[in-house]
Amino acid sequence: MKIFTKRLVIKTSKRFQIINITSEVEKAVKESGVSEGVCLIHLPHATAAVILNEYEPRIVEDYLKWIVETFRPGGGWRHDEIDDNAHAHLASSIIGSGRFIPISRGELVRGTWQEILLVELDGPRDRSVVIQVLGE
Q1: Are 135 and 1 in contact (CB under 8 A)?
Q2: How many Å is the Cα radius of gyration of the chain?
Q3: 2: pLDDT confidence band, cut at 50, 70 and 90?
Q4: In three state form, how does the secondary structure of 13-64 look?
Q5: Inter-residue contact 107 to 22 (CB < 8 Å)
Q6: From the CB of residue 107, how many other CB atoms can be counted at a distance below 10 Å?
Q7: Average pLDDT in the 89-114 region?
Q8: How far is residue 41's CA from residue 26's CA, in Å, rounded to a whole number?
Q9: pLDDT at res. 134
Q10: Is 106 within 8 Å of 29 (Cβ atoms)?
Q11: Rounded to whole angstroms, how far apart are CA atoms 18 and 55?
């Protein structure tokens, strides 16, 4: 079994932002040389998340609207007494900081419109993305 790990740094520029990282993950899969296996995408952060979904301007706005309306920045959360970012911790814990995607014939197995999206919840920041590819 091969194990290949690549780390990226993505600079975000806004408090809330969605960045398409699909091409970077695909490059890592190619570099790994794995034909059949699995790819893990992990953000080692408590205030960022990763989703698999369509990357289209209107749906990106909808994701961000849902996050703000659901997790209410400045909404009186107890953690805001420390860092004023409780919304980001809550959203990250619900959305998730990692995803597994199968690899077949050296390619990520994704739906037609599925992209890999980094969700910034407390930017701007430098965000690490750990891509680990396992397989043969």
Answers
A1: yes
A2: 16
A3: very high
A4: CCCCEEEECHHHHHHHHHHHCCCCEEEEEECCCCCEEEEEECCCHHHHHHHH
A5: no
A6: 12
A7: 98
A8: 11
A9: 98
A10: yes
A11: 9
Residue with tokens 């739906």, as numbered in its chain: 111
Closest CA to 43 of 88, 85, 92, 86: 92
Question: What is the C-alpha separation between 76 and 47, in angstroms, rounded?
Answer: 17
Residue 124 preceded by cis peptide, ω within 30:
yes
For the stretch 43-85, pLDDT in tens is 999 999 999 999 999 999 999 999 999 999 999 999 999 999 9
Whole-number percent of the chain with pLDDT over 90: 100
| Single-letter amino acid code for the residue at 127 | R
Structure tokens, 93: 């814990």
CA-CA-CA-CA torsion sign (69, 70, 71, 76)? positive
Q: In this structure, what DSSP letter does residue 113 have? A: T
Average pLDDT of 24-32?
98
| Separation CA 127–CA 85 (nearest Å) | 16
Residue-level pLDDT at 1: 94
What is the distance between the alpha carbons of residues 55 and 2, in angstroms, rounded to a whole number?
31
